[in-house]
Design goal:
- The protein is mainly α.
- It is about 50% helix and about 5% strand.
């Protein structure tokens, strides 16, 4: 990272280099570290798990509508009735809440940030943009206070 006028800029190396993890490795790692908030997670681990949870959520959303969908006439009379058909989505959301939070915190650790930076999501629009930039930032190519660089022999598995 370079410093210019007190501002930190991520170098090309930091943004575009990474230790990759496959789709299957990411899912198994995130569920194996179900509620592990310590250590570090690579970009590929975070984004593959994010994709997995998003795709399953979409599928469950469709299945909720197929199995418990309400007729259009009921929804027309009470638009809030549609929220009563989210059984599978709620179960999935509760089941993946901790691993999703844990991998996000480990991802923040990987770029040298505290897990408390996750709360920036609660600042509408700007906070979400900053959070996405953090999640897209490359791994710090050295050990930091949160652990060894992922993919090295010293890193916890």
């Amino acid at each position: 990272m370079g410093m210019v006028g007190g501002l930190t800029f991520f170098s090309f190396y930091t943004f575009f280099t990474f230790n990759t993890m496959t789709f299957a490795q990411s899912i198994t790692t995130c569920f194996r570290k179900y509620a592990t908030f310590s250590g570090r997670a690579t970009r590929s681990e975070f984004w593959w798990f994010w994709l997995f949870t998003a795709v399953i959520s979409l599928i469950l959303s469709y299945l909720d509508d197929v199995f418990w969908g309400l007729p259009d006439s009921v929804i027309a009379q009470n638009p809030m009735a549609v929220f009563g058909t989210m059984y599978l989505r709620v179960i999935w959301g509760v089941g993946t809440l901790l691993p999703s939070l844990a991998v996000a915190v480990r991802r923040l650790h990987d770029i040298g940030k505290s897990g408390w930076w996750y709360l920036i999501n609660f600042i509408l629009i700007v906070g979400t943009i900053v959070y996405i930039i953090f999640m897209c930032t490359g791994t710090q190519p050295f050990d930091n206070k949160y652990g060894a660089e992922p993919g090295t022999e010293d890193a916890e598995e």
